[in-house]
Specification:
283 residues, eight-stranded mixed barrel, 45% helix, 20% strand, binds ligand C2E, binds magnesium ion, EAL domain-containing protein
């Protein structure tokens, strides 16, 4: 699968040689066409339940395989689209694809969930709520099948509005994950207040876990804290078997990372589930 190779070899844009402004404008101008033509597509990375060793969900990660430039780093074009008020286009495309994926996945794994990333600016107005309502209705999937991932800084900005929107989504039953946890500046007060169902620990805390005693202490107490607040814990960026064993032993609920599975197209993700396999704990 060519698509399974996504995630490596991004072309890094160099503003010094190509002109940041030109690059930005040309990307924006091509956005609609790229969505229509299939250059923009959605990769899925599996989420593994560490207790049952089964796949329980997947994260939707947008991809842009440009006709001439090749794969464009998603963090880069997402930021550009966001800055120019075009992120809604991407989000509604990803939500649509993700809703179909989770509907298909639920034929094999009844409680399967799909996670969709939401940008900070989208917590300042109701557009995302309307999108979610529409997609749940159109695909006839339960709110519980969808998790929205929001970074801690995003959920803290525009406090009043973001908080109200997130609460409304949670009341519908949509899951809410605090993404890249541990890299921002969330306070304990914030953690207590935000209606999240999941805490997603940033991959920098997974990278040296197996060998670093301090990271282990931080991880242990983070898992305990999240559980005490009624949240599930996901750790992203698991690249080694040792990290996975250790997290399972610490009572971490869910793992995600290259060692478990790389982001790949929807068909590849569905193949992992059919029939539901127990993921082998092998190095
Ligand atoms: P994120 O939401 O924190 O997604 C996790 C990133 O870590 C993904 O990068 C994924 O490919 C990568 N990753 C997963 N496992 C491993 C691992 O074991 N090791 C390492 N080194 N990396 C791993 P990706 O796909 O490049 O996405 C980057 C960021 O772009 C995402 O970070 C998210 O913030 C944003 N993004 C991606 N898709 C969307 C989208 O549809 N909407 C919005 N708003 N943002 C998106
Ligand atoms: Mg994410
Ligand atoms: Mg993350
Ligand atoms: Mg990230």
């Amino acid at each position: 699968h060519a698509a399974s190779q996504q995630g490596v070899g991004w072309k890094v844009h160099d503003p010094a040689t190509s002109g940041a402004k030109e690059w930005t404008l040309s990307l924006l101008g091509e956005l609609d066409q790229a969505i229509q033509s299939g250059q923009i597509w959605v990769a899925y990375q599996p989420k593994l339940d560490l207790a049952t060793r089964t796949f329980v969900g997947a994260e939707a990660l947008v991809r842009w395989t440009h006709a001439t430039r090749g794969p464009i780093n998603p963090a880069e074009f997402v930021e550009v689209a966001d800055r120019h008020g075009r992120i809604g286009k991407i989000t509604s495309f990803v939500l649509e694809d993700a809703a179909q994926l989770v509907k298909d996945a639920r034929q094999w794994v009844p409680n399967f969930t799909v996670s969709v990333n939401i940008s900070p600016s989208q917590l300042t107005n109701r557009e995302v709520i309307d999108m979610v309502d529409a997609v749940l209705l159109r695909h006839d999937i339960p709110a519980e099948s969808l998790i929205l991932e929001v970074t801690e800084s995003a959920a803290m900005a525009e406090e009043g509005t973001a908080q109200a929107l997130l609460e409304e989504l949670r009341e519908k039953g949509v899951g809410l994950s605090i993404d890249d946890y541990g890299t921002g500046m969330s306070t304990l007060e914030y953690l207590r207040r935000i209606p999240a169902s999941e805490l997603k620990v940033d991959r920098r805390f997974a990278s040296a876990l197996a060998t670093n005693a301090q990271d282990q202490a931080v991880m242990r107490s983070t898992i305990e804290l999240a559980h005490a607040l009624g949240m599930k814990v996901v750790v992203e960026g698991i690249e080694q078997a040792e990290t996975l064993y250790m997290l399972a032993g610490m009572g971490c609920d869910i793992g995600q990372g290259y060692h478990i599975g790389r982001p790949a197209d929807g068909t590849s993700l569905l193949e992992l589930l059919e029939p539901q396999k127990h993921w082998a704990f092998t190095g």
